[in-house]
Amino acid sequence: MSQALALMPFGELTEQDIVTVRETIAKDCNDSQFRLFMGIAKASGANPILQEIHPSVFQGKLTVQFGIDFHVRKAKETEGYLGYDVQLVHDNDTFKMHQEKAEDGRYYAVIEEHSWGFPRGKVVGGYAIAYKEGYAPFTVVMDVEEVEHFKRSQIGMQKTMWTNYFNDMFKKHMTRRALKAAFGLRFDDVEPGETTPPAYEAPQRKDITAEVEEMAPERKQEQQPKEDDEAAKLKKARLEMKKKFEQLGISQPEEMAAFIEQHAKPKGDKPSLAEITGLLKIMHMHIAEKQELATENDELN
Predict the structure, then answer these.
(1) Global pTM?
(2) Which domain holds residue 39?
(3) Based on the structure, what is the number of domains in the chain?
(4) In a domain, 191, yes or no
(5) Which end of the chain is more exposed for a tag (fewer CB within 10 A), N or C?
(6) CA atoms within 13 A on the CB side of 217
(7) In a domain, 22, yes or no
(8) Which residue, 13, 33, 68, sits at the end of a domain?
(9) Per-residue pLDDT tens for 138-159?
(10) Cα-flanking dihedrals φ and ψ of residue 106, to 5°?
């Protein structure tokens, strides 16, 4: 590590702290990536020594993730913060809840009763409640089936973490959701310079042979699009799909075809813009899961 990196100023971090970060959680970063990571950490106020922020390098690209401790601290810094609670519901628990209508006309969840004894049985759900002065408690309630897909993830380590530490991972997942929504936390785990795609929309079936041919490095380049807005958007979407395949570590045409067939099940001879957009959102979800895994893995270590 260069002397310039070792002496880079960073708020309350000492020179030795920076060396420690460089040699531990940032050991896979090159010098430029390390500078960028530390710059993001400084700008956001997240302390890497306290595991509030973590760098991850995949396929030569830097991704930055924010840990659960940072979510909690930022929520505490928000005006009106009154704390939070998170609980798992087991199949032997007594659990009742209902909705009530606030003065502004919006509904919110109310936990009527949650009591338990032992043995509690398997986890069947859970909830996280964020409390903010002047507002009804914000409650995230989730059935266990909503997170079971993490245990079936194609990302090996993610599957391992959610299988071996399911209760901890489930509670952190719900807590993040509650805090982000209740206190307007806007930071996200995305690559520097990227934007977060819109919400998921289910794609439809299409023939992906031609699409894979166009994305493969050794294949012919894409034909020039028609001089209209729709064609320009379609070309941009195809390039974005290729980029996301690289982020997922999928480079072979056969692997691309298998991924598209499994997750999009498209139809038609040539994919429409709407169909590609739907697949891009699914790919973003897979990338986000991979990034979240890196953060949660650090938190459990």
Answers:
(1) 0.59
(2) 3-68
(3) 3
(4) no
(5) C
(6) 6
(7) yes
(8) 68
(9) 999 999 999 999 898 765 566 7
(10) -90, 150
